[in-house]
Amino acid sequence: MLKSNLVKVEGSGVSGVGRWTQEIAWRDFYIGILASFPRVSMGRPYLEKFSTVVWENHQAPEDPGVGRASNDNQDGESLQRWKAGQTGVPIVDATMRCINEMGWVHNRTRMITAMYLTKDLMIDWRVGERVIYLLSLIKTVVIDAL
């Protein structure tokens, strides 16, 4: 094989190969977190110092069993709007409507939606984790727990 026939593969973050490599690295990072801190798959925070946080709106029950059926009658108005994709924030609403309809969303929009739930609505992250887990066709504990 002649050296002149070799083609250089673009490995930067903007190329397909580079982007795929980054996604694999993030997946492996999350697997490492789960292996080192298995409590994150059991409804416990990554950092234990945050285990006593009291959420302003809709605290998760003491039994954080993921997969337990949600009771919509007990959900506050803001949580019901979030679950239905009717918050008034276009990317959050699109994400929730997509996961309700298709059972899948891209990880980036899932993160945006989770941040909106916890930082804007001040709802316990375990409530959102449970909702996304129940709606997702692909049950990925590594991604859902983090």
Short synopsis of the structure:
Helices cover 49% and strands 0% of the residues. The chain has 146 residues and is an all-alpha fold.
Describe the model:
The protein has one domain: Orthogonal Bundle (DNA Cyclobutane Dipyrimidine Photolyase, subunit A, domain 3). Helix 3 (90-102) packs across helix 4. The chain is built from six helices and no strands. The chain is globular and about 70 Å long. With 146 residues, it is an all-alpha fold.
Helix/strand layout:
Layout (H helix, E strand, L loop, with lengths): L15 H21 L40 H8 L5 H13 L4 H14 L4 H11 L5 H4 L2
Helix pairs in contact: 3-4
Instruction: Please report the first level of CATH classification, the CATH class.
Output: Mainly Alpha
Main beta-sheet annotation:
none
> How much beta, percentage-wise?
under 5%
Return the string of H and E elements.
HHHHHH
**CATH fold assignment:** DNA Cyclobutane Dipyrimidine Photolyase, subunit A, domain 3
Mean pLDDT: 81
Which residue ranges are poorly predicted, with pLDDT under 50 across at least 5 consecutive positions?
A: 64-69
Label this structure with key terms:
146 residues; DNA Cyclobutane Dipyrimidine Photolyase, subunit A, domain 3; globular; mainly alpha
